[in-house]
Specification:
The protein is an alpha/beta fold. Helix content is 45%, strand content 14%. It starts with a helix and ends in a 5-residue tail after the last helix.
Amino acid sequence: MRKPRALLKTAALVAAVLLCALAIWLWPDPYRVVLADYARQRWQAGLTRNAAKIDDHRWVYAYNDDAPANAPTVVMIHGFTGSKENWYPLAQRLRGRYRLFAPDLPGWGESERKAGGDYGFLAQSARVARFIEQVARKSGSEVVLLGHSMGGGIVALTTARHPREVDRMGLFDAAGVRFNDNAFGLAVLRGKNPFAVDDAASLQRYIDIVFYDDAAKPVIPWPASRIYIDKRRRDAAFEQSVLDNIGRSDERFLPGIQAAGIRQPSLLLWCAQDVVIDPSALDLYAARLPQAQRVLLQGCGHMSIVERPQQAADAVNRLITEARPR
């Protein structure tokens, strides 16, 4: 019996050492647990992580450039409280056909945030144009700029104000127009943040707001859930400042106004059960973008790019191969 006991003692010692190593690794930044899972998701999507200093911000982005020569370059811009990881299900379905770039916008995710910085529609649209110019653009390759939610408003402004940087545009459940009143929009107008997360109940409420399809809702196990909640609590003031800018300032409807000047081939994709950006926004954007292909999906909510990634990928393919300018 001595040998099995010795093996058990050795196994227990190894486990203890590994747990101590894990504790030491997490001690400076417990959010590493979440980042480790993001790395797993990125690997599954076939993407690589990189970083670049552009003007006064350090950007972190995921990319894949394993595509045919002169293949279009697809740049994907996330929404409010989002990150580059939101695009991984779509990127996985586009990989190999196009060059792909999914950055964390300055202020969000792993990219740099500066105290007192402007992270509204206009400022971010100028930064996205610089990201395309400095990082994503390749000679002979069309740039296809996609934006989700807040990112859609940013993309509309980027396309309208920096037309040389964008050849085709796609808006997914995009902010930036005065859609029909819903609970989310009215709360924003009252100065609230319906996406605020400060405990387990509000985390579940947040997930239930942005997702309609139960099968697509993420499950965040402990301790990752606790670590994520703590980060969102620390980010509460920043989130509110950005929401005030994009939801209540003079900039809030600027994307829709300036979209009228966009001539590039365009895509408008919404989910019919979106309770964040009401689907009436699709028609408002369409009135300004008569050249746009329109897609209204059923059985999904605000996170169309996660809930219906294959249908979203099919729509992007049509935007690139079939859509025409105004």
